Amino acid sequence: MSIHPSIGTIHGVGLGPGAADLMSVRADRLVRAARHVAYFRKAGRAGRARRLVEGMLRADAVEFAMDYPVTTEIPVGPAYNDCLSRFYAACTEHLARLALAGEDVVVLCEGDPFFYGSFMHLHARLLEQVPVSVVPGITGMSGAWTASGVPITWGEDVLTVATATLPEEELTRRVADTDALVVMKIGRHLPKLRRAVQAAGRGDEAWLVEYAAMPEQRVRQLAEVGDDDAVPYFSILLIHGQGRRP
Ligand SMILES: C[S@@+](CC[C@H](N)C(=O)[O-])C[C@H]1O[C@@H](n2cnc3c(N)ncnc32)[C@H](O)[C@@H]1O
């Protein structure tokens, strides 16, 4: 439902960590009713968010796949930022045009749209132009600690969330200076992350969760994972807090 009668709304809809039944009732309702559906994906792939709603879309739904022009092909830097910035601007233009023509659009987002999500780059650009709404979702990290079967924070535990893309020294400092830890975006950074965790003296406490809440879910202690093991994009490292409990 649009806020303005003649302008559509762009809905950033969080789909949760990867199981259709971990989607909110609001997300389910919006996805099933959507005439226009947009989603990011790596070029040549189906896209996790799109796969998650398989069988839920209207027969006449119009899909807009937003293929990332780069993912890990070029290092993060000015050229990478330029390329992505032009890409997000083009996606924004397309979505804004639909909304200005009176169409609502559901943008499918993994986990929660406002948590390290690509949708945030559209949101920032769309806000000035058309109505935008966001539906929160269960995050991947929530799926990960649930998969591990162990609570993440007790009592006054401090939880740090970091990405493995940080420099090694910074990672080490963060790992040492927290009770509980979540590290996202691991991929090829696993050897560096492992060194940081070990340098902080916490190698034995770390777990790696792959594909949390998805059919391929796998939970292992970090010590069981080799540096040469391919770590999938959907991987999270956890250290559980050990805080006060009655
Ligand atoms: C661009 S961020 C998106 C995060 C997402 N918006 C969320 O709320 O979890 C992508 C990273 O999230 C993590 N991730 C998200 N869902 C996951 C899942 N189900 N299992 C493991 N890792 C996941 C991975 O570390 C991945 O590299």
Low-confidence stretches: none
Per DSSP E runs of 2 or more residues, the count of β-strands stands at 10
Number of helices: 7
Q: What is the strand arrangement across the widest sheet?
A: 3-2-4-1-5
Based on secondary structure, the structural category is alpha/beta
Helix content: 25-40%
List the helices and strands and how they pair.
Blueprint lengths: L9 E5 L10 H9 L2 E7 L5 H5 L9 E7 L9 H23 L4 E5 L9 H8 L5 E4 L4 H9 L10 E5 L4 H9 L3 E5 L5 H10 L6 E5 L7 E4 L13 E5 L7
Parallel strand pairs: 1-4, 1-5, 2-3, 2-4, 6-7
Antiparallel strand pairs: 7-10, 8-9, 8-10
Helix pairs in contact: 3-4, 6-7
The structure holds S-adenosylmethionine.
The site of S-adenosylmethionine has 23 residues, from helix 5 and strand 10.
Give a description of the structure.
With 246 residues, the protein is α/β, with parallel strands linked by helices. Helices cover 30% and strands 21% of the residues. It contains seven helices and ten strands. It has helices spanning 25-33, 48-52, 78-100, 119-126, 140-148, 168-176, 190-199; strands at 10-14, 36-42, 62-68, 105-109, 132-135, 159-163, 180-184, 206-210, 218-221, 235-239. It has a five-stranded parallel β-sheet, with helices on both faces. The chain has a five-stranded mixed β-sheet with strand order 6-7-10-8-9, sandwiched between helices. Helix 3 crosses helix 4 (119-126). It is globular. S-adenosylmethionine (SAM) binds at residues 17-18, 110-112, 115-117, 139-140, 143-144, 184-185, 209, 211-214, 233-236.
